[in-house]
Amino acid sequence: MNTVSSTGTRRREQDRATLSTLRQDPRVREWMSIFHKATGLAIRLVAPDLEIDSAQWCGHENRFCHDAGLKGSTICCQARELLQRKLRSRLVPQQVVCGSGLTEVAIPLTIGGRHYATFLVGQVFCQKPDARSWARLTSLMGEDGDEHRLARLRGAYLAGRVLPEEILQPLVHMVTLHVCRVANDLRQNAAARRPKRRQRLKPAQQPKSGKSKRSVKTPM
Question: Angle at which helices 165-193 and 26-39 pack, to 10 degrees?
Fold first, then answer.
Protein backbone atom coordinates (compact mmCIF):
# COMPACT_ATOMS: atom_id res chain seq x y z
CA MET A 1 0.00 0.00 0.00
CA ASN A 2 2.81 2.41 0.88
CA THR A 3 4.53 1.67 -2.42
CA VAL A 4 1.33 2.36 -4.36
CA SER A 5 0.72 5.56 -2.39
CA SER A 6 4.27 6.84 -2.93
CA THR A 7 4.05 6.03 -6.64
CA GLY A 8 0.78 7.99 -6.91
CA THR A 9 2.34 10.92 -5.04
CA ARG A 10 5.33 10.97 -7.35
CA ARG A 11 3.07 10.92 -10.38
CA ARG A 12 0.99 13.83 -9.08
CA GLU A 13 4.15 15.80 -8.39
CA GLN A 14 5.39 15.02 -11.89
CA ASP A 15 2.06 16.14 -13.35
CA ARG A 16 2.17 19.44 -11.45
CA ALA A 17 5.80 20.02 -12.45
CA THR A 18 4.99 19.42 -16.13
CA LEU A 19 2.02 21.80 -16.02
CA SER A 20 4.11 24.43 -14.23
CA THR A 21 6.80 24.10 -16.90
CA LEU A 22 4.22 24.66 -19.62
CA ARG A 23 2.76 27.74 -17.93
CA GLN A 24 6.17 29.31 -17.49
CA ASP A 25 7.42 28.48 -20.98
CA PRO A 26 7.69 31.84 -22.82
CA ARG A 27 7.24 30.11 -26.18
CA VAL A 28 3.91 28.62 -25.11
CA ARG A 29 2.68 31.92 -23.68
CA GLU A 30 3.80 33.84 -26.77
CA TRP A 31 2.08 31.38 -29.10
CA MET A 32 -1.15 31.62 -27.11
CA SER A 33 -1.01 35.42 -27.26
CA ILE A 34 -0.39 35.39 -31.02
CA PHE A 35 -3.25 32.93 -31.55
CA HIS A 36 -5.63 35.08 -29.50
CA LYS A 37 -4.68 38.29 -31.33
CA ALA A 38 -4.91 36.65 -34.75
CA THR A 39 -8.23 34.85 -34.23
CA GLY A 40 -9.97 36.71 -31.41
CA LEU A 41 -10.64 33.35 -29.75
CA ALA A 42 -10.18 32.76 -26.05
CA ILE A 43 -7.41 30.27 -25.28
CA ARG A 44 -6.40 29.04 -21.84
CA LEU A 45 -3.97 26.50 -20.45
CA VAL A 46 -5.45 24.66 -17.48
CA ALA A 47 -4.98 21.52 -15.42
CA PRO A 48 -6.41 18.18 -16.63
CA ASP A 49 -9.39 18.59 -14.28
CA LEU A 50 -10.21 21.87 -16.12
CA GLU A 51 -10.09 23.78 -12.84
CA ILE A 52 -9.83 27.49 -13.72
CA ASP A 53 -8.32 29.50 -10.90
CA SER A 54 -6.74 32.92 -11.26
CA ALA A 55 -3.52 31.55 -9.81
CA GLN A 56 -3.60 28.28 -11.74
CA TRP A 57 -4.12 29.19 -15.38
CA CYS A 58 -2.87 31.50 -18.07
CA GLY A 59 -4.40 32.71 -21.29
CA HIS A 60 -7.12 34.93 -22.66
CA GLU A 61 -10.80 34.84 -21.72
CA ASN A 62 -13.99 35.86 -23.50
CA ARG A 63 -14.94 39.45 -22.61
CA PHE A 64 -18.56 38.66 -21.81
CA CYS A 65 -17.68 35.71 -19.56
CA HIS A 66 -15.17 37.90 -17.74
CA ASP A 67 -17.55 40.86 -17.27
CA ALA A 68 -20.46 38.65 -16.23
CA GLY A 69 -18.31 36.78 -13.73
CA LEU A 70 -19.42 33.43 -15.13
CA LYS A 71 -16.20 31.71 -14.09
CA GLY A 72 -17.27 29.31 -11.36
CA SER A 73 -20.98 29.85 -12.06
CA THR A 74 -23.46 27.01 -12.56
CA ILE A 75 -23.50 27.63 -16.32
CA CYS A 76 -19.71 27.43 -16.51
CA CYS A 77 -19.41 24.42 -14.17
CA GLN A 78 -21.96 22.39 -16.12
CA ALA A 79 -19.99 22.91 -19.33
CA ARG A 80 -16.75 21.95 -17.58
CA GLU A 81 -18.29 18.80 -16.13
CA LEU A 82 -19.51 17.75 -19.56
CA LEU A 83 -16.06 18.36 -21.06
CA GLN A 84 -14.49 16.34 -18.24
CA ARG A 85 -16.78 13.38 -18.89
CA LYS A 86 -15.98 13.50 -22.58
CA LEU A 87 -12.23 13.67 -21.94
CA ARG A 88 -12.38 10.78 -19.47
CA SER A 89 -14.17 8.77 -22.12
CA ARG A 90 -11.64 9.61 -24.82
CA LEU A 91 -8.51 11.77 -24.75
CA VAL A 92 -9.12 13.62 -28.00
CA PRO A 93 -10.36 17.20 -28.65
CA GLN A 94 -13.88 17.49 -27.20
CA GLN A 95 -16.46 20.20 -27.85
CA VAL A 96 -19.46 21.52 -25.91
CA VAL A 97 -21.91 24.42 -26.08
CA CYS A 98 -22.43 26.07 -22.68
CA GLY A 99 -25.66 27.55 -21.33
CA SER A 100 -24.63 30.94 -22.72
CA GLY A 101 -24.60 29.49 -26.22
CA LEU A 102 -20.80 29.70 -26.47
CA THR A 103 -18.86 26.86 -28.06
CA GLU A 104 -15.74 25.66 -26.27
CA VAL A 105 -13.22 22.99 -27.22
CA ALA A 106 -10.90 21.13 -24.83
CA ILE A 107 -7.66 19.87 -26.38
CA PRO A 108 -5.74 17.48 -24.08
CA LEU A 109 -1.95 17.41 -23.95
CA THR A 110 -0.86 13.83 -23.42
CA ILE A 111 2.52 12.15 -23.16
CA GLY A 112 2.65 8.39 -23.24
CA GLY A 113 -1.09 8.19 -22.70
CA ARG A 114 -0.97 10.40 -19.56
CA HIS A 115 -3.05 13.59 -19.46
CA TYR A 116 -0.87 16.47 -18.23
CA ALA A 117 -2.73 19.63 -19.30
CA THR A 118 -5.62 20.94 -21.36
CA PHE A 119 -5.90 23.84 -23.78
CA LEU A 120 -9.38 25.39 -23.75
CA VAL A 121 -10.18 27.14 -27.01
CA GLY A 122 -13.26 28.98 -28.15
CA GLN A 123 -15.83 30.74 -25.99
CA VAL A 124 -17.28 31.78 -29.31
CA PHE A 125 -20.73 31.76 -30.88
CA CYS A 126 -21.23 29.50 -33.87
CA GLN A 127 -24.59 31.20 -34.40
CA LYS A 128 -25.28 34.90 -33.90
CA PRO A 129 -26.91 35.63 -30.51
CA ASP A 130 -30.15 37.61 -30.42
CA ALA A 131 -32.58 39.17 -27.94
CA ARG A 132 -34.31 35.83 -27.38
CA SER A 133 -31.10 34.02 -26.44
CA TRP A 134 -30.17 36.94 -24.15
CA ALA A 135 -33.54 36.74 -22.36
CA ARG A 136 -33.06 32.99 -21.84
CA LEU A 137 -29.55 33.56 -20.50
CA THR A 138 -30.58 36.25 -18.02
CA SER A 139 -33.19 33.90 -16.60
CA LEU A 140 -30.51 31.22 -16.17
CA MET A 141 -28.12 33.67 -14.51
CA GLY A 142 -30.86 35.15 -12.33
CA GLU A 143 -29.74 38.66 -13.23
CA ASP A 144 -31.91 41.53 -12.05
CA GLY A 145 -31.59 44.92 -10.41
CA ASP A 146 -28.67 46.93 -11.80
CA GLU A 147 -29.92 48.15 -15.18
CA HIS A 148 -26.59 49.74 -16.12
CA ARG A 149 -24.75 46.48 -15.54
CA LEU A 150 -27.36 44.51 -17.48
CA ALA A 151 -27.13 46.95 -20.37
CA ARG A 152 -23.33 46.61 -20.43
CA LEU A 153 -23.51 42.81 -20.29
CA ARG A 154 -26.17 42.73 -22.99
CA GLY A 155 -23.95 44.81 -25.25
CA ALA A 156 -20.98 42.53 -24.67
CA TYR A 157 -23.13 39.44 -25.23
CA LEU A 158 -24.73 40.58 -28.48
CA ALA A 159 -21.34 41.84 -29.74
CA GLY A 160 -19.74 38.44 -29.06
CA ARG A 161 -17.55 36.89 -31.71
CA VAL A 162 -19.44 34.70 -34.18
CA LEU A 163 -17.44 31.99 -35.91
CA PRO A 164 -19.22 29.41 -38.06
CA GLU A 165 -18.41 25.77 -37.39
CA GLU A 166 -16.65 25.37 -40.75
CA ILE A 167 -14.17 28.10 -39.75
CA LEU A 168 -13.79 27.09 -36.11
CA GLN A 169 -12.81 23.48 -36.81
CA PRO A 170 -9.68 24.28 -38.90
CA LEU A 171 -8.52 26.60 -36.11
CA VAL A 172 -9.06 23.83 -33.56
CA HIS A 173 -7.07 21.49 -35.79
CA MET A 174 -4.23 24.04 -35.89
CA VAL A 175 -4.17 24.22 -32.09
CA THR A 176 -4.24 20.42 -31.88
CA LEU A 177 -1.17 20.16 -34.12
CA HIS A 178 0.66 22.72 -31.99
CA VAL A 179 -0.25 20.87 -28.79
CA CYS A 180 1.19 17.69 -30.33
CA ARG A 181 4.45 19.55 -31.07
CA VAL A 182 4.59 20.87 -27.49
CA ALA A 183 4.05 17.34 -26.14
CA ASN A 184 6.80 16.02 -28.41
CA ASP A 185 9.23 18.71 -27.19
CA LEU A 186 8.46 17.81 -23.57
CA ARG A 187 9.00 14.13 -24.35
CA GLN A 188 12.37 14.80 -26.00
CA ASN A 189 13.52 17.08 -23.17
CA ALA A 190 12.58 14.45 -20.60
CA ALA A 191 14.48 11.80 -22.58
CA ALA A 192 17.55 14.05 -22.79
CA ARG A 193 17.57 14.57 -19.00
CA ARG A 194 17.13 10.89 -18.27
CA PRO A 195 20.44 9.25 -17.25
CA LYS A 196 21.72 6.87 -19.86
CA ARG A 197 22.00 3.24 -18.94
CA ARG A 198 25.49 1.82 -19.00
CA GLN A 199 25.70 -1.00 -21.45
CA ARG A 200 27.27 -4.17 -20.20
CA LEU A 201 30.25 -5.21 -22.24
CA LYS A 202 30.15 -8.76 -23.38
CA PRO A 203 33.22 -10.72 -22.29
CA ALA A 204 35.67 -11.39 -25.09
CA GLN A 205 35.16 -14.80 -26.57
CA GLN A 206 38.08 -17.01 -25.61
CA PRO A 207 39.44 -19.47 -28.14
CA LYS A 208 38.64 -23.05 -27.35
CA SER A 209 41.51 -24.96 -25.81
CA GLY A 210 42.83 -28.00 -27.59
CA LYS A 211 42.60 -29.00 -31.18
CA SER A 212 39.43 -30.20 -32.63
CA LYS A 213 39.48 -33.82 -33.37
CA ARG A 214 39.12 -34.70 -36.99
CA SER A 215 38.38 -38.13 -38.25
CA VAL A 216 41.34 -39.37 -40.23
CA LYS A 217 40.79 -42.07 -42.72
CA THR A 218 43.50 -44.69 -42.76
CA PRO A 219 44.51 -45.86 -46.19
CA MET A 220 43.46 -49.39 -47.00
Answer: 170
